[in-house]
Write a structure and sequence with these properties.
This protein is α/β, with parallel strands linked by helices and 380 residues long. Among the domains are: 115-200, Leucine Dehydrogenase, chain A, domain 1 (Rossmann fold, 3-Layer(aba) Sandwich), CATH 3.40.50; 227-357, 3-Layer(aba) Sandwich (Rossmann fold). The chain has helices spanning 3-22, 26-49, 52-55, 93-115, 130-146, 161-173, 192-197, 210-217, 228-239, 259-268, 283-288, 339-342, 356-375; strands at 89-90, 120-126, 149-155, 179-182, 248-252, 272-276, 292-295, 313-316, 320-323, 331-334, 348-349. The chain is globular, with a radius of gyration of 29 Å. Homodimer.
Length: 380
């Protein structure tokens, strides 16, 4: 087609567009305008969805449904050569924690002899939750056993955020304090992030500061501190001779205390990590394909034997109080994993209590020691 013909055709099309539109019946023009308006609304919606906040996802909290309470779930289908009567090796967290505490105590004594100072750990406890009080007692006792000085600020549940921040600030400024932590959870009326961010970066022995978490996420960076619970999970695996490279690890729960930092730490060890949360579809199926399962959902007996593949390694971070009239305290502690079922499927498993808990406290003592060594120029 020649250039003149193309120009003539284009001109004809331009002239014909308004003629066709003007000849539409009034009702059709109304539909056309409505459709155009709807298109603009969709475009605006797309623009809103492209904002930076929408990329971060909805701010909703994981709420786990309690597991059903029928008789024990069936075990996975039998495979050739599988012995379901076998019993998993129990990973002794108490023994591993004792070894860490002995090493910390030895280095604390060396520090005292070298510079005349010992590490100091300060804890801020808000409210009167029995479990939080119990955890703090264990931490204070752990400090006493290894020679670390401990300080405790106890505040009432109805105190203000500013009062908590003031307590944190005083410990930040105290040169004899090398680690500061705020016992979680805080009362609901408080802004947890605001309070945790008030902790000095170089005293954040819990590893919750955004810079510590961010540096953990970047393999080229080294955080000052890593979450004590995450370090405990890794220590239990490594001390048990579990190979992590290339293994499929499923973490149940994605909190900043356990799930997130443990996932980041495992990826540094070249594991393949799946994170399961309250909105995950088919969590049993995902977990059943895993070589290692780490559960930190905070739901008693959530993980049944049928969730595990034969020979999986199970690290149970859950510490859930369950009513028990036979107990002196009226309750007993149980994990996220149904131990009675899992012990016949897994190759190795941590008990509750006596598994992750003692090692977590030992890691807190080790983090506090590391902080003091940096201050006194004794770091490796």
């Amino acid at each position: 087609m020649g250039g003149a013909a193309v120009a003539l055709l284009a001109a004809t099309r331009r002239r014909s567009i308004p003629l066709v539109t003007s000849s539409l019946p009034r009702a059709a023009r109304g539909l056309h305008e409505a459709a155009a308006a709807a298109g603009e609304d969709k475009a605006r919606t797309r623009r809103r969805r492209s904002s930076s906040s929408s990329f971060l996802g909805p701010d909703i909290t994981d709420t786990w449904d309690p597991p059903p309470r029928p008789a024990a779930s069936p075990l996975p289908p039998r495979a050739a050569g599988v012995d379901y009567e076998s019993t998993a090796t129990i990973i002794d967290g108490k023994s591993i924690a004792e070894d860490i505490r002995l090493q910390v105590a030895e280095e604390v004594l060396q520090m005292k002899n070298a510079v005349g100072h010992v590490p100091g750990l300060a804890v801020v406890l808000v409210g009167d939750r029995k479990d939080s009080q119990s955890y703090v007692r264990f931490k204070v006792k752990g400090c006493e056993e290894v020679g670390i000085k401990s300080l405790l600020a106890e505040l009432p549940r109805n105190c203000t955020e500013d009062e908590v921040v003031d307590s944190v600030s005083r410990f930040n400024e105290d040169p004899s304090v090398h680690g500061v932590l705020v016992q979680l959870p805080l009362p609901q009326h408080m802004d947890e992030e605001k309070i945790l961010n008030a902790i000095s970066l170089d005293k954040d022995v819990d590893g919750f500061h955004p810079l510590n978490v961010g540096n953990l996420a970047l393999r080229s960076r080294k955080p000052l501190f890593v979450s004590c619970a995450a370090k405990a999970c890794l220590e239990l695996l490594l001390q048990s001779g579990i190979d992590l490279m290339g293994k499929h690890v499923t973490i149940i729960g994605r909190s900043k205390v356990v799930g997130l930092p443990t996932s980041l730490l495992l990826q540094r060890h070249h594991a393949t990590v799946s994170a399961i949360h309250a909105y995950t579809e088919n969590p049993e199926e995902i977990t059943r394909g895993s070589d290692i399962v780490i559960s930190a959902a905070g739901v008693a007996n959530l993980v049944r034997g049928s969730w595990l593949k034969q020979g999986a390694v199970v690290i149970d971070v859950g510490t859930n109080p369950v009513e028990d009239p036979a107990s002196d305290f009226g309750y007993r502690l149980t994990g996220d994993v149904c131990f009675e079922e899992a012990v016949n499927v897994a190759s190795a498993i941590t008990p509750v209590p006596g598994g992750v808990g003692p090692v977590t406290i030992a890691m807190l003592l080790a983090n506090t020691l590391d902080s003091a060594k940096r201050v006194y120029g004794l770091s490796d």
